[in-house]
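Lecture 7 notes: from sequence to structure.
We start with the chain below.
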Amino acid sequence: MESINWDAAKVFSDLGQWLIMGAFAIYAWWSRRNSDNGKTLNGINNRIDGLDKHLAQVEQTIKHRPRHDDLDKLRTEMTHTNRELAEVSSQLKSTTALLNRLHDYLLQERGNR
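Predicted structure tokens for the same chain:
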């Protein structure tokens, strides 16, 4: 029967131990790296989702803002309203003048009695 070379067995055992420890170290590094990448990607996805929501709100706001043709219609209506207001103002001036004359007449008539 041959005797076992314990020195060679110790070398192979040490080599196997180093290989197993190396494999664990690589696995730990790889899983940590993937975990960090996943967290980073989740953070980026959350920021993109927030920006998408904000962009949708801005688009909705812009969609309901008046356009140039709406502003032109508004200006036209305001011009028309200003003209009518000028007519009413001129009629009011003449009515006020007539009312003042009637007031003076009535005051004079009352004073003559």
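Points to note: The mean pLDDT is 89. DSSP finds two helices and no strands in the chain.
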